Amino acid sequence: MEKIAITGGIGSGKSTVSEIIRDMGYTVVSADKAYSELLLNEEFVKEICELMKIPPIEKDGRITIDRKALSAIVFSDKNQLSRLNDFTHPRIMNEIFRRAKGVEPLFFAEVPLLFERGYETEFDNVFVVHRRLDLRLSETMKRDGKTEAEVRKVIDNQFDYESNKCGNKSIIIENDGTIDELRSKVYSAVNALL
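-> structure tokens emitted (194 positions)
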């Protein structure tokens, strides 16, 4: 089995690329989805709340995290963001690789903080989705209902894909055109691995 990560900055189109690959019949595991599923475990939630010094809240009869309070902490203090990531990321990656067992010939994982956390070494190849900043901003503002300043704050905390080298295992997928153009680029990138 070959393991391929899909990554890129917020609003770059990682999830769209993942959906195209799923439509091709391949398994794609999302780190964000794995994290959401881990949050269904109340012990995991309590550990995060204790670590970040925020009280858990009850929603729909379950103990959960006050996401607004957590976001306010981690996006205003890089040390707090790093503490949270140090706790959650190893658990998320364990869950991703648990799901990879037995998948052939290609296994894909959408991992937003791949380079920030040094996980690129765990994969055979990396699809890096690039998109112009103005498109990333407008897409994320529309999708998440955030202001431009809020989105820029997130971008400032992420790996700078434009200024940094992504390694020789990286395959760049430009996402500045139409969905059909993107689909064609993804098909070519996936088929080149077979």
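The chain has a mean pLDDT of 92.
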